[in-house]
């Protein structure tokens, strides 16, 4: 018995019984040895040998350690002979309490689990609700975004369609304008041809009348000679009665067919009388000589024009923007000023040229008058804008990409308007001779006007250039933008007309007999060169370097002076305009404009050069 207890109470778990069955078997063996009496009492407590809650096959020593006290109590009660019933009651009470405690713990555990499940269910339901709300919100946002995107696409399509329609209408209008311009040009050419033919016909008729008049006079002289010889008695000559001469002369005024046979069979036309010729000459208008214009000018009241501000448009000198009280409008006022070099003769000259113009791309004359007896004035329409060089400078300073900020098509269209103005001036027989960016005004509403006709001359003028007053400030050192109009103060051998940076070789020589439409064609090429590159074509340091420059330097190429992509057609047009030899240039501004319009009419140019480079 002591060995059994010692083994059960061993310190090391490995020394104890392995399983409850082994311990029960050992106890049965011990009771068998002690006798039937103890064995009978043991049978009552046979089920207690294995504690409740442990399976029979429990083999882990740890599961037995908690029940050693119970087993030992049972064994001790057997050994001491105490009542097993008391032991059973105590054990049953302990088991009941244990069961109650376990049930209580189980109920608490179940309650906690139920509460946890309920909490988890609530949290899961709340999470699902929030997820559903989030998904619905995302769905609504997605639908709103899709609706906004559809509306944006619809607006873009509508805007693109509108722009395309406007572009189509614009192209249609431009095409119609080009066709109208070409039709008008053809009509103008045809009218000029007919006018030339009419003038030639009139000239031939005039020559025929003159020849007939000479033949008639010769015949009258012969008849008078014969009559004198016949009427002289005894061969005396030299005396012809007055009645005979008058009758002969009056008879020859309207020759008969028989008289016409004396001239070889031609019938002469009836000639007008001297009185009718005088009347026709009196009815034909004659222009007033320039020297007689000033005394005939109407005197303008001093307070009619209220000067608003002064302007300086290129090389046309000091002009003023003034308010005309009578006409209720603002005009450009230019008046003669001996201090500024603008003599009355020069103002009158420019006014008479401007009076011939009637074109939107050329400055026109509104009024020619005088302030008192010494000062002459002229007024022109006001164009709100700036000169071409100022416009391009502002665009460059604004940071627009490219040297000028204009697309190539915009450059070509602007240049076409300049050519149209110069072409109109040539049709009236006037050469500009000072074409440059400073003399082209770009209006705020798209107007393009060629101004400053102070250096202009008639086509094929034979007189030597008169030096009025150039803007040369320092004698001996004029700069490239100095407007020259005669012999230089520093070098009398140079009689240049124009601005050195833009003038042609024949203008540098200063011989007006060589000035033709091709001279202004060079000026047009110089303006186009500036539009393409932002600089002047005559690349010299001083005006006096122009002579060797024209002799030895090749024609400059715009593509060598800019980083922009210059269309080959525009470069070829510019180079041909800037040829040193006038014979190699385009014959007139009409030809330049025709080539330019042919290039603009090509549809592929809009895709290649429609954007600014």
Question: Can you describe this structure?
Answer:
The chain is an alpha+beta fold and 613 residues long. Among the domains are: 2-82, no CATH class; 290-382, Phosphorylase Kinase, domain 1, CATH 3.30.200.20; 384-471 and 478-613, Transferase(Phosphotransferase) domain 1 (Transferase(Phosphotransferase), domain 1, Orthogonal Bundle), CATH 1.10.510.10. It is built from 19 helices and 12 strands. The strands form 4 sheets. It has a 5-stranded antiparallel beta sheet with strand order 1-2-3-5-4, with helices on one face. Strands 6-8-9 form a 3-stranded antiparallel beta sheet. Strands 7-10 form a two-stranded antiparallel ribbon.
Q: In a nutshell, what does this entry contain?
A:
With 613 residues, the protein is of the alpha+beta class.
Secondary-structure topology with pairs:
Elements: H1 2-8, H2 20-34, H3 36-44, H4 62-65, H5 68-80, H6 84-231, H7 242-252, H8 257-260, H9 274-283, H10 293-296, E1 305-312, E2 318-324, E3 329-335, H11 344-355, E4 367-371, E5 375-381, E6 385-387, H12 388-397, H13 408-427, E7 430-431, E8 440-443, E9 448-450, E10 457-458, E11 484-487, E12 495-498, H14 505-509, H15 517-533, H16 546-552, H17 568-577, H18 589-600, H19 604-609
Antiparallel strand pairs: 1-2, 2-3, 3-5, 4-5, 6-8, 7-10, 8-9, 11-12
Helix pairs in contact: 2-3, 6-7, 13-15, 13-18, 15-17, 17-18
């Amino acid at each position: 018995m002591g060995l059994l207890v010692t083994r059960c109470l061993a310190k090391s778990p490995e020394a104890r019984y392995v399983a409850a069955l082994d311990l029960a078997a050992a106890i049965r063996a011990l009771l068998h040895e002690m006798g039937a009496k103890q064995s009978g009492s043991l049978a009552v407590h046979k089920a207690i040998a294995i504690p409740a809650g442990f399976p029979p096959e429990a083999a882990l020593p740890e599961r037995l350690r908690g029940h050693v006290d119970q087993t030992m109590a049972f064994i001790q009660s057997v050994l001491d002979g105490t009542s097993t019933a008391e032991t059973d009651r105590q054990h049953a009470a302990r088991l009941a309490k244990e069961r109650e405690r376990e049930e209580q713990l189980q109920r608490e555990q179940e309650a906690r689990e139920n509460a946890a499940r309920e909490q988890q269910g609530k949290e899961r339901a709340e999470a699902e609700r929030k997820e559903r709300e989030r998904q619905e919100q995302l769905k609504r946002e997605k639908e709103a975004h899709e609706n906004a995107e559809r509306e944006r696409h619809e607006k873009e399509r509508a805007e693109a369609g509108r722009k395309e329609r406007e572009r189509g209408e614009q192209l249609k209008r431009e095409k119609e304008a080009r066709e109208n311009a070409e039709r008008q040009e053809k009509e103008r050419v045809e009218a000029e041809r007919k006018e030339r033919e009419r003038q030639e016909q009139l000239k031939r008729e005039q020559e025929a009348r003159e020849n007939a008049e000479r033949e008639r006079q010769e015949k009258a002289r012969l008849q008078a000679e014969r009559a004198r010889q016949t009427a002289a008695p005894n061969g005396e000559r030299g005396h012809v009665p007055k009645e005979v001469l008058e009758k002969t002369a009056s008879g020859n005024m309207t020759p008969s067919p028989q008289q016409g046979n004396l001239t070889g069979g031609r019938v002469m036309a009836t000639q007008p009388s001297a009185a009718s010729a005088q009347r026709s000459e009196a009815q034909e208008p004659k222009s007033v000589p320039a020297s007689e214009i000033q005394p005939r000018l109407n005197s303008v009241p001093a307070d009619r024009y209220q000067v608003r501000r002064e302007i300086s448009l290129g090389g046309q000198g000091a002009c003023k923007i003034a308010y005309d009280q009578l006409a209720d409008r603002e005009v450009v006022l230019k008046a003669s000023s001996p201090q500024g070099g603008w003599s009355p003769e020069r103002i009158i000259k420019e006014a008479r040229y401007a009076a011939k113009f009637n074109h939107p791309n050329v400055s026109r004359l509104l009024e020619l008058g005088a302030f008192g007896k010494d000062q002459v004035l002229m007024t022109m329409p006001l164009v709100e804008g700036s000169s071409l060089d100022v416009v391009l400078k502002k665009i460059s300073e604004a940071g627009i990409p490219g040297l000028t900020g204009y697309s190539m098509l915009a450059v070509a269209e602007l240049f076409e308007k300049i050519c149209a103005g110069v072409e109109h001036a040539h049709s009236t027989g006037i050469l500009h001779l000072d074409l440059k960016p400073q003399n082209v005004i770009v209006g705020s509403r798209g107007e393009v006007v060629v101004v400053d006709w102070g250096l202009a001359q008639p086509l094929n003028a034979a007189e030597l250039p008169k030096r009025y007053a150039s803007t040369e400030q320092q004698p001996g050192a004029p700069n490239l933008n100095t407007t020259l109009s005669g012999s230089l103060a520093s070098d009398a051998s140079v009689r240049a007309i124009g601005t050195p940076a833009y003038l042609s070789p024949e203008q540098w020589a200063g011989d007006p007999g060589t000035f033709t439409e091709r001279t202004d064609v060079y000026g047009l090429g110089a303006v186009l060169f500036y539009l393409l590159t932002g600089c002047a074509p005559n690349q010299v340091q001083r005006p006096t370097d122009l002579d060797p420059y024209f002799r030895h330097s090749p024609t400059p190429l715009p593509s060598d002076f800019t980083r922009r992509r210059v269309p080959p057609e525009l470069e070829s047009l510019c180079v041909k305009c800037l040829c040193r030899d006038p014979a190699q240039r385009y014959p007139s501004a009409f030809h330049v404009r025709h080539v330019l319009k042919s290039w603009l009419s090509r549809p592929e140019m809009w895709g290649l050069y429609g954007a600014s480079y």
